[in-house]
Amino acid sequence: MAIATKKHRILYTVASKYESAERFDKLKKGVDIVCAGDSLTGWNNHLTHPTIWPFPTYPKFLQDILNENDADLHVVNAGIAGATSNAGFFAVMSCLEKFENAQFYLIGFGANDLGQGVLTEFDKSIGLTKADIYNPPLEEITEKAIENLDSMVDGVLTEGKKPILINVPNVNEEICPPERIQELRAKRDHYNKQVADYFAGRVPIVDIRSKLKDKHFDDSVHTNEKGAKIIAEAVFSELKKYLN
Predict the structure, then answer these.
(1) Contact 227/170 with Cβ under 8 angstroms?
(2) Kindly report the CA angle at 16 between 11 and 17, in degrees rounded to 5?
(3) Beta carbons within 10 angstroms of residue 29's beta carbon
(4) Picking from 45-49, 185-189, 217-221, 228-232, which range would have the lowest pLDDT averaged per residue?
């Protein structure tokens, strides 16, 4: 593992909105690890400053762990809250262009794919009902998500970089409607198994599904600080297999 000459500070892809564009352009050349995913990773489409985003996410703690272990690696948080794997493909392709020197791509999508067909509070507020919301079958959701993940992985590998997938955690069942717990658990277990089977022997997958418990969430799906640190630790355990 390389010895760090200084402790890095995590870079956010929204940084140019709150700091100088020149600083962002300078730092992006030194990015080694790209964290791409949904709101378990980040929030960049909300135009929210990182310090006031309400939920802790793992990239910040991953950078802390790397610093503590004298790993001279710089992390960028390129997460997009609410993103499905379809949007994730374009996000990863954009990151490949933006962070040309990054060697590792941590990819975590799927939770929002599985949420398709759910009537949100916003949907209700504008008068939509379940009849207005397309609710695709689980097999269709899973198949499409795997196609998108496969495209992301191919894009990363084509550039000579290392993709690492992160599976989908369960929801916080303590505050989940009891009548939906079995359905939501079954969806995630099915999705994670299909993804694991498809990428077996080709792409490593960080299993956060088995590590995160109800107490590790701030709401039904977003991690608290302890949960975010658990994800970061699990990711680091996989990453260090490839560091020298």
Answers:
(1) no
(2) 120
(3) 12
(4) 45-49
Secondary structure letter of residue 117 according to DSSP: T
Ordered by where they begin, the domains of the chain are: 11-239 (3.40.50.1110)
**83, 31, 75: which is closest to 50 by C-alpha?**
75
Please write the tens of the pLDDT for every residue from 153-181: 999 999 999 999 999 999 999 998 899 89
Q: What is the pLDDT of residues 81-99, one digit of tens each?
A: 989 999 999 999 999 999 9
- Buried residues in 80-103 as b, exposed as e (16+ CB within 10 A): bbebbbebbbebbeebbebbeebb
* E-state strands within 54-152: 75-77, 104-108
Is the Cβ–Cβ distance between 88 and 150 less than 8 Å?
A: no
HSE-up of residue 197 (Cα within 13 Å, Cβ side): 8
Task: Provide the strand spans (E) within 15-80.
Answer: 33-37, 75-77
Whole-prediction pTM? 0.91
